[in-house]
């Protein structure tokens, strides 16, 4: 029998003994007078003399995280909502059943106590207990504080223990909740309304990604889990909802990394009668305000760097390639060379020669798209993206990688699109929306012809969306912001798994 199994049996025996005495080890409620943080806020500044004179009566509860018994007395610490409060137990202050219960308590048990507040000789705020109740028995031992729950995968898999044992983890998710509340408030203040769109869709549209498939039994209908809400949200703009946003769960059947989880949260929003430059301006203000409210200031620490959301650069994609061109590969290509579609393949080959001899860089496959800008996007992602630590807006992208965006008036092969980077990650993507239904159909058909009409990342041809556009969609700008990655930045978390309560993991080994 393992140690954990032995402890489980011992604690089961304690439960059985309680039941034999007619006690309920899992009562239905406990009407506490104060949550522990409220106790510390209300009485934390009072000295021992003031507390002794008033003897404030309290009724509190929480998980027992420390336990020290000394014959007829004992101390413990209750933990609730991220706060801890000491309790003091004396045999002569409890009835016999209460003191017997105290002697049978274990670390991790959830208990409720009544009593009055005082300060010990060491000055610690403490509850002098007059009544004790077990609220839930912990049958399994908590991990040791310093040597227990350290393995990252175990922490993700048993998030409930991670939250109990590591107070900083609780703070991460409180900040995430504040971030979402902040975004909601700021969008509603701007006149947006929050909506909900389908998570199960007959077509996987709105992004180039591999979807998850499911099936509706009653309708005998194949469905996809949503990869993006975009096409549904723009249908609402057609219907006259000029400013809409959705905080949505998306699902993409792709790889897992420190920046990717198959199930993730996005904020996606659309603003009629605007273009991508309006959203660039708004996004700078939005991100800076969220940083101030959630992290306490516009400047946050992320992976050893100070990231200042009050200062956001803007570079075109072509400018970024020149600025971040690897010094080891010589002088960056001239602006005219990057702008010339006929020289795109040669530029990619120059990059590939560097990538083949340099660790950490992956060569590009020129394929059939040379001259259309897709290779430039690949070069940008390889040489610039990881270096965009400070908030930076990269704008103007090739049409070949942006089938839902409006073309630039002076350069039809490029579109009015931008991406926002910080901490070396893309955190937002937005553009002026294509609202010409016939051009949208042409682009969908081009995408399907190029990639094949499969589910492997192709944009589906959504006939109803084309029909909606034919009724007329006003000039509109839209954007998606990755909540998980933004939460990483605002909490200083190294991995996306650190800001998702229950990230996807392989099945636990037997």
Kindly describe this structure.
By secondary structure, the chain is an alpha+beta fold. The chain has two domains: 3-142, OB fold (Dihydrolipoamide Acetyltransferase, E2P) (Beta Barrel), CATH 2.40.50.140; 167-324 and 384-499, BirA Bifunctional Protein, domain 2, CATH 3.30.930.10. It is built from 16 helices and 19 strands. The strands form four sheets. Strands 6, 10, 11, 14, 15, 16, 17, 18 and 19 form a nine-stranded mixed sheet that branches. A hairpin with a 2-residue loop joins strand 12 (299-302) and strand 13 (305-308). The radius of gyration is 29 Å and the shape is elongated. The two termini are 17 Å apart. The model has no long low-confidence stretch (mean pLDDT 93).
Secondary structure topology:
Blueprint: H1 3-20, H2 36-43, H3 48-54, E1 57-70, E2 73-80, E3 83-90, H4 96-104, E4 110-119, E5 125-136, H5 152-157, H6 159-165, H7 167-189, E6 193-194, E7 200-201, E8 213-216, E9 221-225, H8 230-238, E10 243-251, E11 263-272, H9 276-295, E12 299-302, E13 305-308, E14 313-316, H10 317-323, H11 335-339, H12 344-356, H13 374-383, E15 392-398, E16 407-408, E17 411-422, E18 425-432, H14 437-451, H15 463-470, E19 476-482, H16 483-491
Helix pairs in contact: 6-7, 7-9, 7-16, 10-13, 14-15
């Amino acid at each position: 029998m393992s140690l954990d199994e032995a402890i489980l049996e011992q604690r089961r025996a304690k439960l059985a003994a309680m039941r034999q005495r007619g006690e309920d080890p899992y009562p239905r409620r406990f009407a506490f007078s104060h949550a522990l943080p409220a106790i510390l806020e209300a009485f934390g500044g009072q000295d021992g003399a003031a507390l002794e004179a008033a003897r404030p009566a309290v009724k509190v509860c929480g998980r027992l995280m420390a336990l020290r018994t000394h014959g007829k007395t004992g101390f413990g610490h209750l933990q609730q909502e991220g706060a801890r409060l000491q309790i003091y137990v004396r045999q002569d202050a409890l009835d016999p059943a209460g003191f017997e219960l105290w002697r049978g308590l274990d670390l991790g048990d959830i208990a409720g106590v009544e009593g009055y507040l005082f300060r010990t000789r060491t000055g610690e705020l403490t509850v002098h207990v007059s009544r004790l109740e077990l609220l839930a028995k912990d049958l399994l031992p908590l991990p040791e504080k310093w040597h227990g729950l350290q393995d990252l995968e175990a922490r993700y898999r048993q998030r409930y223990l991670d939250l109990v044992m590591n107070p900083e983890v609780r703070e991460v998710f409180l900040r995430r909740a504040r971030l979402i509340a902040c975004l909601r408030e700021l969008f509603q203040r701007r006149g947006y309304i929050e909506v909900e769109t389908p998570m199960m869709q007959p077509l996987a549209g709105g992004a180039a990604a591999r979807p998850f498939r499911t099936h509706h039994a009653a309708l005998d209908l194949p469905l996809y889990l949503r990869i993006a809400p975009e096409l549904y949200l723009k249908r609402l703009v057609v219907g006259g909802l000029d400013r809409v946003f959705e905080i949505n769960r998306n699902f993409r059947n792709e790889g897992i990394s420190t920046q990717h989880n198959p199930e993730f949260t996005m904020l996606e929003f659309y603003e009629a009668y605007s273009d991508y430059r309006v959203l660039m301006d708004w996004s700078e203000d939005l991100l800076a305000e969220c940083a101030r409210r959630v992290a306490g200031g516009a400047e946050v620490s992320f992976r050893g760097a100070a990231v200042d959301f009050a200062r956001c650069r803007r570079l075109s994609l072509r400018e970024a390639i020149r600025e971040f061109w690897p010094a080891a590969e010589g002088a960056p290509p001239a602006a005219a060379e990057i702008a010339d579609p006929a020289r795109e393949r040669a530029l990619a080959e120059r990059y590939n020669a560097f990538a083949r001899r340099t660790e950490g860089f992956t060569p590009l496959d020129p394929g059939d798209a040379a001259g259309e800008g897709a290779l430039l996007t690949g070069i940008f992602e390889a040489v610039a993206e990881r270096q965009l630590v400070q908030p930076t807006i990269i704008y103007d992208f090739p049409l070949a990688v942006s089938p839902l965006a409006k073309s630039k008036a002076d350069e039809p092969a490029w579109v009015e699109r931008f991406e926002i980077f910080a901490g070396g990650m893309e955190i937002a993507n937005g553009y002026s929306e294509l609202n010409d239904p016939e051009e949208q159909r042409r682009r969908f058909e081009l995408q399907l012809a190029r990639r094949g009409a499969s589910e492997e990342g192709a944009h589906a041809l959504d006939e109803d969306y084309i029909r909606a556009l034919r009724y007329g969609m006003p000039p509109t700008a839209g954007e998606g912001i990755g909540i998980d990655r933004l939460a990483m930045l605002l909490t200083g978390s190294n991995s996306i798994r650190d800001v998702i309560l229950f990230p996807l993991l392989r099945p636990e080994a037997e």
